[in-house]
Amino acid sequence: MDISHTSVAGQADARAPLAGFRILELGHYVAAPFATRLLADLGAEVIKVEPPAGDPVRQWGARYKGSAPWWSVHARNKRCISLDLKKPGAREVVLDLVRGCDALVENYRPGQLAKLGLGEEALRAARPDLVIARISGYGQDGPDRDKAAFGVIGEAIGGLRHLTNHAPGTTDLPPVRVGVSIGDSVAGIYAALGVVAALLRRARTGAGGDIDVALTESVFSLLEGALPEYGTLGTVRQPTGGAIATAAPSNAYRSRDGIWVLIAGNSDPLWRKLAGLMGRPDLAEDPRFVGNQHRVANARELDGLINAWTGTLDAEALETALREANIPHTRVFTVADIAADPQMRARGMVQEVEDGLLGPILHPGVVPRVDGVPNAPRSTGPAVGADNDAVLGEMLGYEPAHIAALREGGVL
Questions:
Q1: Residue 15 has what DSSP assignment?
Q2: Whether residues 160 and 284 fall in one domain
Q3: Is residue 138 part of a domain?
Q4: Which CATH number covers residue 314?
Q5: 171-193, pLDDT tens digit by residue?
Q6: Cβ-Cβ contacts under 8 Å for 20 (sequence gap 6 or more)
Q7: Do 263 and 210 fall into the same domain?
Q8: Which pTM does this prediction carry?
Q9: For residue range 115-146, what is the model confidence (pLDDT) as tens digits?
Q10: Sheet harboring 250-254: ordered strands across?
C-alpha cells in the first residue's frame, strides 16, 4: 500500500466520523500530538505546527535512514508546517489558521502561549466558537500549575508508578516503568475525547469550549477503587508484580523453555479446570484455594504450585493444553509476536505501508473501528515543513511573495 505523504493528508473517507473537522495542533513531544493523531485517524484534518528544527520526537528512539520510525506513526494523517512561534509574524499566521479550524490542541506550560500573544482572548477573537484543548503537567490552575512535568511525572504523582512495581520486599530496584509513555498517551486520549465532546456540544449550542487535561489527573483517574478503598478502609493499595491483587490465580508463569505464559484461571470453574489439567484435582478442594478470597490470601503458594507445573512443559505444549481446556491464557507478546499474529493482521492492526521518508514500514491500525471505515493511515509522518506552501497558499490564500518573505525572515 503506497501512502507516501502528499498534501492530501487531510482528505479522509467521507464516512469517517470526524471528516470535515479541522484541528490545529500546537504540540510537541507526545501528549498533544498523540491526541491529534487519534483525531486524525478518525478523519479530522489536522494541521501540525512544529518549529523549523522539527518536533523533538523526530529524533527519539531508534533511527533508520536518518529518521525515527516513531515519527511515521506519530505524525501520520497530519499536514505539517514549520513555524517559529517566537518570530515576529508567526502570531498572525497562527491566528489565520485558527480562523479556519474547529479546535486547537496544545501542550505548552500554562501561560506560555499567552506570552507569545496567543492566549485565549486572541484565539477567541479569531474564532469565537473555537474548541481549545490544553494538556499540561498539573492543569491550568492550582499551586503546581507552573511546575515542569513530563509523562513520567504524571505517572508518579498519579499513583501508577507505585503500583507497577514488584511486590514489597522482593526487590530494591527502582519502581518499574510501564514501558511506553503511558502518562502522555492517556492524557492525549482524554484530550481527544474532550475535543469530540465539546464539538458535539457546539453543534447543539454554537458555543466553543475549553478542555483542561492534566497528566497527573489523567493517570490518577485509572486507579480503579484505590481512592475509595483508602477513604473508607484506610488501606493503601500495594504493587503486586505480575499478579492481580483481587483475583487468583492470575499471573505469568514460566514454561520449561523459558517463555512467560499468562494464565487467568481466577473463577471457581476455571480454577477447577486448571487444577485438573495440572493433574492435581485435589487442589480445587483444598481449603486454602476454595473461593477467590482464599486463593488471593494464599496466592504466593498457589503461584508456586502452578509454576512447578508449567515448568514441566515447553510453551507450545503448555498453550495447547490450556487452549484445549478453554482456560484464558497467552504467552507474553513481544512486538515481533504482534507483527506476526494472524488476528492482528486479519483485523488490520498490523499494516505494511510505504513511507515517503523511510520506505516500507509497519503501522498500527486505527482504534476504535467505526462503521467499518478502512483503518489504514492516509499518510505517514512527513518531512519538516512539507505542507508549508499547500497550507499557507491554498488554505490561507497567501501569495508566493508573502510565503517567501516568511521563509526569508526565519518564520517558516
A1: T
A2: no
A3: yes
A4: 3.30.1540.10
A5: 999 999 999 999 999 999 999 99
A6: 43
A7: no
A8: 0.93
A9: 999 999 999 999 999 999 999 999 999 999 99
A10: 250-254, 260-264, 329-331
